[in-house]
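## Example record

The block below lists the input lines for one assembly entry, exactly as stored, with component labels intact.
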Amino acid sequence: MTEPRRGGLGLWRRGRRVWRPREGLLVLPALVFYILVYLYPLTRLLAWSFFDPGPTLKFYGALLAEPAYLKALSNTLEISVAATVLSLVLGYPLAYLMATSGARARSLLMALILIPFWTSILVRSFAWIVILGNNGIVNRTLLSLGLVSRPAKLLFDMTGVQIGMVHVLLPFMVFPLYGVMSRIDPNLLRVARSLGAPPRRAFAKVFLPLSLPGVAAGCVLVFLLAIGFYVTPALLGGAGEITLATMIDMMVNTLLNWGFAATLGVVLLAVVGVIFVLFSRLLGLHRLTAVGEEGAR
Amino acid sequence: MQEPGTEGALTLRRLTKHYPGFVAVDGIDLSVAAGEFLTLLGPSGSGKTTTLMMVAGFTPPTSGDILLNGRSVTGLAPERRNIGVVFQNYALFPHMSVAENVAFPLRMRRRPRAAIEQKVAAALDLVRLAGLGQRLPRQLSGGQQQRVALARALVFDPELLLMDEPLGALDKNLRAQMQFELKRLHGELGITIVYVTHDQEEALTMSDRVALMNKGAIEQLGAVEDLYERPVNRFVAEFLGESNVIEGRVEPAPDGLGWFIAAGGLRLPVRLDAAGPPPRPALLVIRPEKLGFANGDASGIPGTVRELVYVGDFTRYRIGVEGGIELILKAPNNRHSRRAGKGDTVRLALEPGDAHLLAG
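Predicted structure tokens for the full assembly:
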């Protein structure tokens, strides 16, 4: 029996090429679309960053020479890592609850996550401005309780950006986690208990390892979304929270420096690529596509 | 040092489980002897699995008590009960090798590494999986996976082994083979087993005793033969194997014999229980294989063959008799057994001792 190689797109079987031209045509529409709206602009972007108008490395030189740009890069990474970690810390127990509770509680939790998820990011970010502002509900509550003597600064700094981003990104953590967790057989935990494992050890030895593909998928998804995030940092961040995305916007819309904007875009793309490769090396890329295959049996 | 009344390896006292809107288990009493193979048999929804889950500690009972070798475990967490459990879907840890799965209960008990290795090897040997320890569960066949689950549930020398429809996912031949294996293991280890199934054939071939459950209660508890030959009520008679159940009344005759008179006037000879007066109204239970074709003469119950089905080792006849009653008859397909064809007028023979009287 020949079994198709995993992740081999069906083109390879036992190391022998089996390209089936007719079925291959099915890829064509998507391929054309991607070449026109993705590959072509991407090539132009690359070109802009290396030509002005003759070949040059001056944009990359400027990037390394100017601390503000490196600061934007480190800001971006810092915000993304923090958003990922926070989403995981908040999302894991939530997904666990969803996966282990009854149908009613599960649909309620699902609705609570989905309704904000369907709301526009722009609307939600503006809402945070209202909530977190000096006259917002949070500060008024804190003041009336006497916990602070003057309004706490929650907006236009890192706090605001983090709150807003985690709020937007949390579903992207919860869904992959829930997807994997819901396919973990509850009998596995029962059996672990009957075999002598107290609840915590049963969780640590059985549930946690089986949920790791979900953790990996959720973290990659949230991190990659966070690193290119524009709306929330732009609205809720201050001058100190310039990220790559907001800086690209500034280069294009204010300074009209397209070459440098392209360079920043290439850097962003390279970072995303590196992270993705690292993750796939570390955990195996199939975990992102075949989510939870391990626990599903 | 056992209290009176707690002599069993497992004793259930008035064990009850209520769910909102229905009673899953309705105050059952049961005592399982050490080394016994007891089967909880019943249709789905009869409460057999709920009972098993309560014994394992996964479901808290509403009331009642569970005693394991004389000590109450009712409030004890599952991990402190020392009971092995095998599920229908095996529930092997997919991220652990076969050996790691089997080692799991020993690791949880923090046994020394050398002892673990030795016990795991012995357990895999016991279930005839020696040499497969490094495989992952998904690389094994269904039957092999069930053996791993069995090894894992036995390796820590539990006081009791619970099995919830463990062979349900296997095909017929493999199931027969595993039944045999289970019986062998039970004999070799002398462990107490409580086995849940809805498959009566499985219950009949494997158990020392069967508890037939229905609607959260035990209808009858006893040896397989008792349940089959002497069912206590209509449910038992009809659930186990095939039965002709006829409603009517009893007319005593001398010498402990009597006549059972069915509603339509059909008269059948019965042996009466010396202990008390015959039940009235009464039910008569006749197993299809106890009926036969009478030899030639005019004695016996007259009837007409309505239908017959050849089933290999026997032929199953549907025979219409007096009073609009239909009887099922099973005749073995051997040279000693008489045959009949469709539409034939026949006479049925029934020994008085072969029919079983019940209160109607």
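The radius of gyration of chain A is 23 Å. The first helix of chain A runs from residue 21 to 24.
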